């Protein structure tokens, strides 16, 4: 049933950060109700192509983007701008453990669905707000988007090729990392709040900001600046602190070589027939290799270019040097390790018959991840939830549908 099968979550969030958190909780067994706008639903439902194909090979209304972040949830459509919609949310909250929302600061207060209003109904409620810039500060009322925050939080200043090389300049990540990390931090914070509530009976409010998360996840890069006062710069596919720790072009493709210590470096150059590079005092230790990077890297690049990608990977794996290929996603899902770990999974789907998804990476011996339902169709569980949670009759539900509330 999953470790969190005792938790009920009301997910009022859209797009990525909040839904990613909700999916994590659902994977762990929580009953997550995704609240969506009638007719339109979550914006990501239309963020395509590509869209999921039905059994006839035609596009459905389910974008691949939406499918990636909403499995194991139930969907209810609800117009929370109406008094009836607000009343339904309040009734659902009475038997909900966690609320997740990512509306603009103050927007839910006008509907009586902010933390203080809902806390008055349920004292031990855990309420997680996700915004671009948090609930305080001069930017609090600004809309925050992953791309913008990647720039503001310093990530793009250290990502991409070096500015003095062709193609150099700031570069965003290939995936919305700020949203993903925020969803992960939200998951951790919510679980900590659940533990606190279970021990004390007291709920709490969680204020998560994309900008805070982006700066926090810069880790050693931010620490380098704080320690030195020198703003880090972009290094392309190289590390500012370790050499060699980068990509090299072999005779038939690119490889990654990551020498984390002097012993691995010696094995690397020995595999290339140039062990004398490990005895040269300019290159014998990592600090010296970092200082003499511009001299050493061209030598290593010429060395790597003499062999094929397979020859290098075979040789370096035998020598115990961390290395690997740079795969496209066809190669990712054909990789023997990816297959062995079961990362790709298939679930039944009411429109397509089946849908291929990426399995949660959480492997737990006693409470394994739950795979109970595919990403829901828009409003797929509206009737079910209203009957189950609020004991509404068919006539009650039809009246709400006639008014456009659900």
TrEMBL record:
GO terms for molecular function: CoA-transferase activity. Pfam families: CoA_transf_3. The keyword Transferase applies. Keywords: Transferase. InterPro entries: CoA-transferase_III_domain (IPR050483), CoA-Trfase_fam_III (IPR003673), CoA-Trfase_III_dom3_sf (IPR044855), CoA-Trfase_III_dom_1_sf (IPR023606). This is CoA transferase. It comes from Polynucleobacter cosmopolitanus.
């Amino acid at each position: 049933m999953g470790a969190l099968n005792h938790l009920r979550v009301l997910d009022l969030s859209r797009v990525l950060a909040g839904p990613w958190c909700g999916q994590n909780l659902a994977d762990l067994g929580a009953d997550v109700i995704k609240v969506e706008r009638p007719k339109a639903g979550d914006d990501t439902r239309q963020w395509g192509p590509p869209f999921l194909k039905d059994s006839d090979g035609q596009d459905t209304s389910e974008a691949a983007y939406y499918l990636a972040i909403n499995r194991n949830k139930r969907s209810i459509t609800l117009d929370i701008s109406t008094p009836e919609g607000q009343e339904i949310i309040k009734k659902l909250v009475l038997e909900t453990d966690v609320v997740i929302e990512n509306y603009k600061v103050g927007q839910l207060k006008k509907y009586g669905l902010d933390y203080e209003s809902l806390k008055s109904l349920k004292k031990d409620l855990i309420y997680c707000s996700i915004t671009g810039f948090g609930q305080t500060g001069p930017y609090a009322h600004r809309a925050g988007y992953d791309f913008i925050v990647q720039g503001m939080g310093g990530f793009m200043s250290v990502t991409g090729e070096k500015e003095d090389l062709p193609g150099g300049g700031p570069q965003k990540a290939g995936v919305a990392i700020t949203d993903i990390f925020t969803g992960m931090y939200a998951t951790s914070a919510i679980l900590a709040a659940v533990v606190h509530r279970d021990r004390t009976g007291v709920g709490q409010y969680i204020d998560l900001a994309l900008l805070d998360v982006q700066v926090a996840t810069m880790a050693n890069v931010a620490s380098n600046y704080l320690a030195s006062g020198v703003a880090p710069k972009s290094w392309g596919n190289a590390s500012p602190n370790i050499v060699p720790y980068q990509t090299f072009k072999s005779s038939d493709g690119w490889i990654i070589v990551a020498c984390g210590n002097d012993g691995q470096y010696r094995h690397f150059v020995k595999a290339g027939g140039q062990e004398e590079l490990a005895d040269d005092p300019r290159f014998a230790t990592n600090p010296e290799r970092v200082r003499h990077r511009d001299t050493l890297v061209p030598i290593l690049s010429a060395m790597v270019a003499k062999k094929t990608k397979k020859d290098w990977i075979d040789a370096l794996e035998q020598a115990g040097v961390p290395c690997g290929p740079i795969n496209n996603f066809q190669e990712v899902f054909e990789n023997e390790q990816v297959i062995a770990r079961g990362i790709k999974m298939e679930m039944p789907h009411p429109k397509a018959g089946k849908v291929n998804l990426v399995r949660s990476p959480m492997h737990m011996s006693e409470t394994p991840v739950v795979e109970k339902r595919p990403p829901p169709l828009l409003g797929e569980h509206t009737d079910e939830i209203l009957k189950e949670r609020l004991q509404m009759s068919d006539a009650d539900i039809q009246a709400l549908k006639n008014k456009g509330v659900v």
